Amino acid sequence: MEAAAAMRKASSQASLSDPDDFDLTRLLNHKPRINVERQRSFDDRSLSELSLSGAGTGSRGGWGYGGAGGGMENYESMYSPGGGLRSYCGTPTSSTRLSFEPHPLVGEAWDALRRSLVSFRGQPLGTIAAVDHSAGEALNYDQVFVRDFVPSALAFLMNGEPEVVRNFLLKTLLLQGWEKRIDRFKLGEGAMPASFKVLKDPKRGVDKLVADFGESAIGRVAPVDSGFWWIIILRAYTKSTGDATLAETPMCQKGIRLIMNQCLAEGFDTFPTLLCADGCCMIDRRMGVYGYPIEIQALFFMALRCALLMLRPDAEGKEIMERIVTRLAALSYHVRSYFWLDFQQLNDIYRFKTEEYSHTAVNKFNVNPESIPDWLFDFMPTRGGYFVGNVSPARMDFRWFALGNCVAILASLATPDQASAIMDLIEERWEELVGEMPVKICYPAIEGHEWQIVTGCDPKNTRWSYHNGGSWPVLLWLLTAACIKTGRLKIARRAIELTEARLARDGWPEYYDGKLGRYIGKQARKFQTWSIAGYLVAKMMLEDPSHLGMISLEDKAMKPVLRRSASWTV
Ligand code: GLC
């Protein structure tokens, strides 16, 4: 559906949806109401019911987080070293309320997650990337990464422990205010750090923070995703706690505005997508993700929508909100139309003419059909589709990227049909995209001469390893969320089962290698925090699908998608 039509439809379905759903028409005239209700929405209810019928699990019934934060002040006391009996605090809230036994890995995962917590001046502030004492040099794995903290934040929120999330949000906001320089160049005001570290000075008894905005990172890569994730976490916090006061503080409002100003700045662009350098996101090394990578476009879209829900339409906010609304319409149109690839679209591109001048051009970006890689003709099923990795003049990166496609579903950047088709593709190409360890970061790997050119001969990113077709357990939470949103619970259950068979036994690795994701990654860290937190989030969401509301945005133009699938997935 065209964006304009989608928006028209959006305003006519207001009664069915959550109060903070995507409704462009009312936003400019009214103060956006940040959701303070804990009642489940129409969608949430359907989700719980669906899960109840399938999984035989219980739902907590609503958004109540009795005891949220209660007794949670002292994180140190919650961790029980040695994996012995966990204190009551170490027991996940959600599981204690259910009548069935939680999977044995859940307790182990909570203990490991709590071990990764770092505190700053006595307050829990975030989780470090990995607690791997066996690995040699820590590099920056002993830092709190903004993107890595996302599943940790969700796990703590889902477990009714918002304090660490709140501290994280406020502290990163202070870091945003620092002057950021690389050599003699000053970075944009809105930039958020990729990571930060707490330096303990036991002598003087003070903790200090050091942050990395790209000036220390390998390759000096800019974390374009950090600001977007920060906004998404703030909205998850607001939604889960019902506490809108944090987002409404002048400090948070300013933080959101600075991020928005930076990503909405006008330049020479002819596209509404955001132009980025390589290494700008989860794939933070040279991997040919420069240009307009789908991961950033999907996060950009989601952050724009979350910002719109949280900005106050005051003198400073209103103008930005107008720009957001205009950009959202252009961005969704562009991505839905030009990034989308399915059998039909592939066949159209295959028959494209080139060198078309003027507005009537069908092949707008002058993509040469000869640039379609051979693997794609066999890979593309008749059922299914996905957003390709990148679209720019004469360049379509036809690779499939997990994060971008899942976030596109969660943010409703994907139309309902596109969302179902993405899940169809995962089902049809299970071996390639999920294999033995969910989920492939991208497919396929690049090899040989192409690998030399695209990665700059990166030995960490050889074929089917790390960012180059490696399998990343952290992506399980995103897959699970996308499954719940599209009503394809069986896919999520199957993926979680695969993970449970190996992840803890292997020491919670960062990534797996090989075509099927069978081997623990060559340089993978163990006890990688987001592998642990990702598993917990996936489990908690499946147990109580109403958690999805924290990380998913409905589109009123979307039909309720929770119909039972005709396929094997339900
Ligand atoms: C690697 C990953 C990056 C992650 C970091 C810390 O560099 O590519 O996405 O944030 O490790 O875990």
Automatic annotation (TrEMBL):
Alphabetically ordered keywords of this record: Carbohydrate metabolism, Glycosidase, Hydrolase
Tell me its EC number(s), please.
3.2.1.26
- Indicate, by first and last residue, each region the UniProt record lists as having compositional bias (Low complexity): 1-15
Reaction(s) catalyzed by this protein?
Answer: Hydrolysis of terminal non-reducing beta-D-fructofuranoside residues in beta-D-fructofuranosides
The record's region (Disordered) falls at 1-22
Per the record's keyword annotation, is Hydrolase included, yes or no? yes
Q: Which GO terms describe its molecular function?
A: endo-alpha-N-acetylgalactosaminidase activity; sucrose alpha-glucosidase activity
Q: What does this protein do?
A: Invertase that cleaves sucrose into glucose and fructose.
Which PANTHER family would you find in this protein's record?
Answer: ALKALINE_NEUTRAL INVERTASE, PTHR31916
The UniProt entry's sequence similarity note says: Belongs to the glycosyl hydrolase 100 family.
Protein's name according to its UniProt entry: Alkaline/neutral invertase
Q: Can you name the source organism?
A: Dichanthelium oligosanthes
